[in-house]
Write a structure and sequence with these properties.
Blueprint: E1 15-16, H1 17-21, E2 29-31, E3 36-37, E4 39-43, E5 55-63, H2 68-77, E6 81-86, H3 93-102, E7 105-110, H4 115-128, H5 143-154, E8 156-162, E9 167-170, H6 179-187, H7 192-200, H8 203-207, E10 213-216, E11 227-234, E12 237-246, H9 255-274, H10 279-295, H11 300-307, E13 315-321, H12 331-352, E14 357-361, E15 364-370, H13 375-396, E16 401-408, H14 414-428, E17 436-438, H15 439-457, H16 464-476, H17 480-489, H18 494-501, H19 505-519, H20 526-541
Parallel strand pairs: 4-5, 5-6, 6-7, 16-17
Antiparallel strand pairs: 1-3, 2-7, 8-9, 8-12, 10-11, 11-12, 13-15, 13-16, 14-15
Helix pairs in contact: 2-3, 5-9, 5-12, 9-10, 9-12, 10-11, 14-15, 15-20, 17-19, 17-20, 18-19
Length: 557
Amino acid sequence: MDHTSGVIARGDDGVQLKQVLAALTVPFDVAGGEAVITDVILAEPGERLGPSPGALVLAVGARGEAAVPVVMAAGRSGAAAAMVKVDADGLPARVREAAREADITVLAVPENARWDQLAQEARAGLTRLGAVTAAAPGTPGDLSSLAQTLATVTHGVVSIEDSAGHVLAYSRTGEEADELRRLTILGRACPEPYLKVLRDSGVFKRLRSGEEVVETTEQPDLGYRRRLAIGINAGHRPLGTIWVQEGKRPLSESSAETMRGAARLAAPQLVDHYYQGDASARLASRVDLAHGLLTGRFNAEALARHLGLDPAQGATVIGVDLREPAHPGASAALDLRREESAGIISLHASAFRRDALVTQACGQIYVLLPGRNATADDTVIQRWVTELVTVLRRQFGTPVQAVLAGTAPHLEAVPAVKMRGYHALHLLARTPERAVATHTELQAALLLGDVLRLLDEHPDTRHEGLEALAAHDAEQGSELARSLLAYLDGFGDVARTAEALNVHPNTLRYRVRKAISLSGISIDDPDQRLVAMLQLRLAVNGGPIEKDPFPGRAARR
């Protein structure tokens, strides 16, 4: 292994060593002066180190005095510091002498610390403190977030590799990682013995052939557990692979499908990686464009061209809400949870439809499926959305809900369909036990909401007697209006309405008679009965639509 190129993008000035050490979760001892860190690399005794100015070198495979050759090699390479494992006696004198001779700072960490964890924490410290300024070979785009999201969905341990087997990104590791995983992360590449096994068994050939998810069985004697793998391909060109190792929990039943979605999301990032493009900027731009298309902020035809869509085609719009009520101080946590859920939805949506777009708006998450869908497809889409909501409910423990807002006949009509979904999700919140609904199923209730909104905005059109009835209830604390509305909604069925209101039938009859007397309404007249049912809804519910359980979101559209 040659470290001439490093494994992480570096800033011009680097980060003070003490700031990097703040990211470590293990105790440590420092021998030497201040140092500025720009990189993290791993080295073994006898390994040749190319020029590595500002690097923090982790002395893998050597403890105590055995780390002296690594410390000396690090000094010759221009590294700023070396990390060495020690026992309870601390840093040996010979290592301290080597550090002084090589003019390098040495860090001593406990012998039971794991190198993969130390490397990951140190790199995270560099990233957080600004040493990483751009994606470079080895860290393209936002593959790390994709790996972590896939790990969350599959319950596995994830790594993403390029076509040469170099590790580009991986999920947070822990005790569930097997020996092969640890060696791969430490060396930033799969060990050659295991690569030979994969080549001889034809796994790589299968991974290059399409979107097949290939399983490799557990082999305890070789130190690795069961894995699933899928190729990342652009047409017939192999770009890399995604590996999911089974941990303490069995892999989820949807692992294969979500891996297909992950491979599709990773492909454009790896194309940018190979051609030195800015994958993260490209992804952010795509999300922004999808948001603009959804909300109508920009010209639909121009946005469609940027997204590679035909402006004349339609798109099915699906709205998803996590149903997490806002409370003071929780906005940041809710935003993070929404980001996490958007990542999970992207995996499933890309697996379901290659050209799916996922973006956030109005505190909700929307999926756009370009193309006009035949009625026969509606059942397929609804089944997919139901499965998606089931996954999200299990993941977040909240009554996640989704609405199929409908299909826009052309892309310019997408914002109008999105608004239907927005209002439908608010309406669906009244019945949290209901996971998925279509706009067609909610159309009558939404139309009624529009009528009540008009009535609410024109108080001069109200029936005076019904206004007096509502005022009487407010003054006396009675429930005459509510009882009359329930009676009318129940088509005059006294027994069933009384049971729903938890009152005696005679109490209901008394309330209805008194309500009719106070309002002067005639419930035998169809017009007056309809007016009473509409206006009483305003009086009982306090508005045309029940109060938004997520206040303040509409302002963030």
